[in-house]
Design goal:
The complex is a heterodimer of chains A (702) and B (165). Chain A is α/β, with parallel strands linked by helices. Chain A contains 25 helices and ten strands. In chain A, strand 1 (105-111), helix 3 (116-132) and strand 2 (139-145) form a beta-alpha-beta unit. Chain B has 165 residues and is mainly α. The chains are: A alpha/beta (702), B mainly alpha (165). At the A-B interface, helix 4, strand 3, helix 5, helix 8 and helix 21 of A face helix 1, helix 3 and helix 4 of B.
Chain lengths: 702, 165
């Protein structure tokens, strides 16, 4: 047995006991709660519809119990402050291990049609933070672009060159643009591995909105060096940096509840943790050997490329015998949350499809049970919404049946005694109180942990404002839960019907949701809620009041969506000190660096003769940008005479018709082929002054 | 004057401004730019005077002679004043981008050798393989069908054993 196997055996035994405990707790909770639910129902769970109600209730209660028990275990763990199985135990009291020699590490930034300016500002902040550690020579940065828009492509190249100059990183900051976008992000990273993977021992994968401090990056490498059994080390990224109310709610809840929940996850997962796709360090060699993803048979949505690649890669890494660990106590890792509810739901659409795909991998040979559970858990994150909707629907049908039909006192044939329907309100109250405890006690415990035990009240604006913020967060999460439920139910339904989400780039700007967008997105749900409510208001008013907490937010979905998306609303809450977080009260150095990078870029005047031009047009016209693009292209591709002729025609079209009459595909063809671009550059500059020259921006007249 | 009497003075003015515009875009020092403009316009004027073609717009002619002059002078972006913002690393030559032959792999006279070395946008390749090994056990439908078959077989065997008794 190798040292790695021996080590794995140690924690696996402990993890097995802990998971058994968690399973028992969840099972008992769900069993007791569903027993009470059966007693509450009119026929005490003896009719077909009541059996279905109890079944769905049991599933849903078990589902919410997972979060409850995980949080509770996390709370107990943090009270004890034990670090026996924490990856950071390898670090000294200062949180470092200076004796460890750092190995070559690549930091990957896969991007896809992102806001170029914001991405590179964050990247510059990370590089500067890393240089402050005086260990930057061990790290190389790779911007891996899958951008399909030609204008953005050119701007990325310019931004790369500018970032290299600002941080003096020529030779350590690289840019690669991938022409075919095969297998999306996982294919992007695999392409890096195939080209340069052997040159690095570790790779850190970031998202376009990630920020990590230099110190954290160094620590992660030190941990990997100290513990050779770790294949993937996942940090817990803290949402930060947004100003809309919706984003600030997520930032507050993650920073208030996140540490406890992460500790709970670590408690029972240990070396079978999740990989979330970013803000993570991976050991390259085993990743290349064991974590290449195939294409699933069949066509999307449940076949084709695996969209949520991270969970699968973690399962494969674990199958190969390497640990996947969650470092719940490593700070300095941040990401930006979606700014609006609609953006969050658009992202969830993709995640839903990816997680449902995982069901096809549930019985893959060799996977550990913990990862099979994580696949199921990921799918249940969205299926539970559909279960909730079904539960509500069945309850509504039961309530309608009670309103329309006479009670059946002899539901079972051959029975001599009537089955009286007894209403036990105290049992319903028990279920309600139990549900409230399951949902909200973890939040209260998080508050106690943050304010009393860890004394972090100042980070949340003080005691009073922290409590107000918690109450506010509970209110808004209760308001938003039905909206998410309906959207997720729809995602599951349409995915199973065969609709493919694709991979659309996220909108990361704080522009807010317009009323038109809100009504387009939520209109159907609003109408359904109004009709549903109207029916029960007329037919069964007592049940109508029970439905109000669900139907009211659904009916007001558009105003809620618009209002929570506004940065000024978020700013107003911030002014009165609600939903404050540590990253706002005392921003850490790396976030300050990112802000400084933005401010200094805004303060810089636009330089260059063609500063008014952007993208493809600038690449054609501006000789320096043209030269840059040509120099970055690694090789001049030789083309067949047929393609050369087609490119010639394209050049003529571009000169005569102007850049605005070119499609994105045509622009990309010209950017791919430097010979055509040279010709276009020359011909454009030779244009006599006139409309064509003005379209290209080379004329100084008019 | 007679040489350019065939040409519109306005179009010549536009050509001169176009050349100046290009040199400004390159960020060359003013004195050097003026020298290049003078030489370029002189060559263009002489060329058009020699040819008997009429109504040729001078701008394309001027731009071609500009490329020739730049190529002869072997200008490098390293010659630019330091405070000028540049979008490319020093040592990339300007002449290469105006020389249509520079797109070939073959070296051309006048092209500085350092241009042939690509900007380090990407490091040296260190190729490795990454092949999928995961075995898929089957679709959900197949799994459900196998479970159903298993249940049926178990039921049949139970019935058979009961009949035997």
């Amino acid at each position: 047995m190798t040292n790695r196997e021996r080590y794995n055996l140690q924690w696996e035994r402990i993890a097995y006991r802990r998971r058994l405990l968690l399973g028992v707790l969840i099972g008992v909770t769900a069993f007791v709660a569903s027993g009470y639910m059966a007693m509450v129902l009119p026929y005490r769970g003896s009719t077909a519809i009541e059996v279905a109600i109890v079944f769905f209730f049991a599933l849903l209660f078990a589902w919410i119990s997972i979060g409850f028990w995980t949080s509770l275990l996390g709370f107990i763990t943090l009270l004890g402050d034990q670090k026996q199985w924490h990856p950071t135990r390898h670090l000294d009291k200062n949180g470092s291990q200076p004796a460890v020699e750092l190995q070559p590490t690549a930091i990957l930034l896969p991007i896809y049609n992102e806001d170029v300016r914001d991405v590179f500002h964050r990247l510059v902040a990370i590089i500067r933070s890393l240089k402050q550690t005086r260990k930057a020579e061990h790290f190389h940065f790779f911007v891996l672009s899958d951008t399909t828009k030609p204008d953005l492509w050119v701007e990325e190249e310019r931004a790369w060159a500018s970032a290299c100059r600002k941080t003096d990183s020529f030779g350590s900051l690289f840019y690669r643009h991938r022409t075919p976008n095969i297998k999306h992000k996982s294919g992007n990273i695999a392409d890096f591995c195939r080209r340069w993977g052997r040159a690095y021992k570790y790779m850190v994968v970031l998202d376009a909105d990630s920020i990590m401090s230099g110190q954290t990056l160094v620590r992660m490498v030190q941990i990997m060096e100290q513990d050779p059994s770790i294949g993937i080390l996942q940090s817990v990224p803290i949402p930060a940096g947004r100003s809309s109310l919706h984003a600030r709610l997520q930032q507050f809840s993650a920073q208030m509840y996140g540490p406890m929940f992460a500790a709970g996850l670590h408690y029972w997962q240990l070396g079978d943790a999740q990989y979330w796709g970013h803000n993570v360090i991976i050991r390259v060699d085993p990743f290349m050997k064991h974590c290449a993803l195939p294409r699933l048979s069949g066509s999307p949505p449940l076949g084709g490329d695996i969209l949520s690649h991270d969970f699968v890669e973690a399962a494969l890494m674990r199958r190969a015998g390497w640990g996947v660990w969650l470092s719940c106590d490593l700070d300095g890792s941040y990401e930006e949350p979606p700014p609006t509810l609609i953006e969050e739901l658009i992202r969830d659409r993709r995640w839903c499809q990816g997680n449902l795909q995982h069901l096809r991998l549930l019985f893959t040979r060799g996977l550990f049970p913990a990862h099979r559970y994580l696949f199921l858990n990921g799918a249940m994150s969205y299926i539970s919404a559909l279960l909730w909707l079904i539960f509500l629907s069945l309850s509504s049908i039961e309530a309608l049946a009670m309103a329309f039909f006479e009670p059946d006192y002899f539901p079972r044939t051959g029975s001599l005694f009537p089955d009286w329907q007894v209403w036990n309100p105290e049992w319903m109250l028990v279920i309600l109180v139990a549900t409230v405890i399951i949902l909200f006690l973890p939040k209260v415990l998080s508050l106690i942990l943050a304010l009393v035990i860890r004394r972090r009240a100042a980070e949340f604006g003080g005691w009073f404002k922290a409590v107000l913020s918690l109450i506010g967060e509970v209110f808004f999460s209760t308001l938003l839960a039905p909206l998410r439920m309906l959207a997720h139910s729809k995602f599951v339904f349409i995915t199973l019907l065969g609709s493919n989400s694709g991979w659309n780039p996220a909108t990361r700007s704080d522009q807010g949701t317009t009323w038109r967008q809100a009504f387009r997105y939520h209109g159907g749900g609003m109408l359904m809620a109004v009709l549903w409510g109207a029916i029960f208001f007329l037919m069964n008013r007592s049940f109508f009041w029970w439905l109000i907490p669900i139907l009211a937010p659904l009916a007001l979905a558009a105003p809620i969506s618009v209002w929570t998306s506004k940065p000024r609303v978020g700013a107003a809450f911030r002014r009165i000190g609600i939903f404050l977080t540590a990253t706002e009260v005392a921003p850490p150095p790396e976030l300050q660096l990112a802000k400084q990078a933005v401010q200094s870029a805004q303060a810089e005047p636009a330089m260059g003769t063609f500063s008014h031009l952007r993208g493809f047009v600038r690449a054609v016209v501006d000789p320096k940008v043209f030269c840059l693009h040509r120099a970055i292209r690694p090789r001049y591709p030789r083309v067949s005479p047929k393609i050369a002729e087609r490119l010639n025609q394209l050049v003529k079209k571009a000169v005569v018709d102007g850049p605005h009459n070119l499609t994105d595909e045509e622009k990309k063809q010209l950017l791919y082929h430097p010979a055509s671009l040279i010709k276009l550059h020359q011909l454009v500059w030779e244009l006599p002054d006139g409309q064509s020259a003005r379209q290209w921006g080379v004329s100084r007249i008019g | 004057m007679n040489d350019i009497s065939r040409q519109d003075a306005v179009t010549w003015q536009q050509s001169q401004e176009r050349v100046l515009h290009y040199l400004k875009a390159l960020g060359l020092p003013p004195v050097q730019s003026l020298e290049i403009v003078l030489e370029t316009m002189a060559r263009a004027t002489a060329h058009l005077a020699k040819t008997s073609a009429k109504q040729i717009h001078p701008t394309p002619v001027a731009m071609r002679f500009l490329r020739q002059v730049l190529s002869e002078r072997n200008l490098s972006l390293a010659d630019l004043p330091e405070k000028q913002p540049i979008d490319a690393r020093p040592n990339n030559t300007v002449s290469a981008l105006v020389d249509p032959c520079a797109c070939d792999e073959d070296y051309r006279p006048g092209m500085p050798p350092e241009y042939r070395r690509a900007m380090p946008a990407m490091p040296e390749l260190r190729r490795g393989s990454m092949l999928p090994q995961m075995q898929q056990s089957g679709s959900i439908k197949n799994i459900l069908v196998s479970l159903l078959n298993l249940a049926v077989r178990q039921n049949l065997s139970r019935n058979a054993s009961e009949n035997d008794k």
